[in-house]
Amino acid sequence: MGAGAGGGGVVDAELMVAEARKAFFTMFAFMAVVWLVQLANWGDGYALSRQYGIVSGQAGRLPDVLTAPLLHWSWAHIESNSGPLFVFGFLAAYRGVVRFLGLSLLVAVVSGLAVWIFQGGGTDTVGASGLIFGYFGYVVVRGLFDRHLIDTLIGVVMAASFAYLVTIAVPGTPGVSWLAHLGGLVGGVAGAWIFRDRRPRPAVSSGGTGTGGGAIVPSRGTPASGDRADLHKELGDLGLL
């Protein structure tokens, strides 16, 4: 293994750790805001939820698609949303906080519009569950669009572990806004495509002699090619090889 290849792996791993650290603090700050809003909302008898929730068909309430995800109807409501919101939000953000902010805006708008256009009965809808479903959809398919094998594996694990979430994004689920969930899921999958990594993947070159330096090999272990070489490189960047 040449020194250049090893140095690149160290740099990639450091960048990934730095992004993960930023993602953690971003989600910590976001959760703090959501809970502070809940405290103010509770202290005012949930007037904020009534004033800034999404009410379908009312043009004056259309901007509330951006405020509704920050609001909840009870302590049980925010408690049930907080764990999934932090976990899926962190997994969505660790590849880049700027991309994550764009994704959050997209998911909030698509989820909110689904409620504003299709929800009947003038129901006032609030809650972060649309964001949760958006982040979930994004995490599940992001690896496929970015061609990151580690992210693909994470997506498979999340899909297998939380497949039950899809059952509350279909019509007929009592007591929840399935439209917000379905809209968030659609927004998350769309975001994975819109914000996909368009940079060309760098080849892992041997840096050796005799064959012109064009062969693809992993940083350690036996030679590999194609997807296997990508997997070796990503595992090496994470310090797992």
TrEMBL record:
<keyword id="KW-0812">Transmembrane</keyword>
<dbReference type="GO" id="GO:0008233">
    <property type="term" value="F:peptidase activity"/>
</dbReference>
<dbReference type="Pfam" id="PF01694">
    <property type="entry name" value="Rhomboid"/>
</dbReference>
<feature type="region of interest" description="Disordered">
    <location>
        <begin position="202"/>
        <end position="230"/>
    </location>
</feature>
<feature type="transmembrane region" description="Helical">
    <location>
        <begin position="100"/>
        <end position="119"/>
    </location>
</feature>
<feature type="transmembrane region" description="Helical">
    <location>
        <begin position="125"/>
        <end position="145"/>
    </location>
</feature>
<dbReference type="InterPro" id="IPR022764">
    <property type="entry name" value="Peptidase_S54_rhomboid_dom"/>
</dbReference>
<feature type="transmembrane region" description="Helical">
    <location>
        <begin position="176"/>
        <end position="195"/>
    </location>
</feature>
<keyword id="KW-0645">Protease</keyword>
<dbReference type="GO" id="GO:0006508">
    <property type="term" value="P:proteolysis"/>
</dbReference>
<keyword id="KW-1133">Transmembrane helix</keyword>
<keyword id="KW-0378">Hydrolase</keyword>
<dbReference type="InterPro" id="IPR035952">
    <property type="entry name" value="Rhomboid-like_sf"/>
</dbReference>
<keyword id="KW-0472">Membrane</keyword>
<feature type="transmembrane region" description="Helical">
    <location>
        <begin position="152"/>
        <end position="170"/>
    </location>
</feature>
<feature type="transmembrane region" description="Helical">
    <location>
        <begin position="23"/>
        <end position="42"/>
    </location>
</feature>
<protein>
    <submittedName>
        <fullName>Rhomboid family intramembrane serine protease</fullName>
    </submittedName>
</protein>
<feature type="domain" description="Peptidase S54 rhomboid">
    <location>
        <begin position="64"/>
        <end position="196"/>
    </location>
</feature>
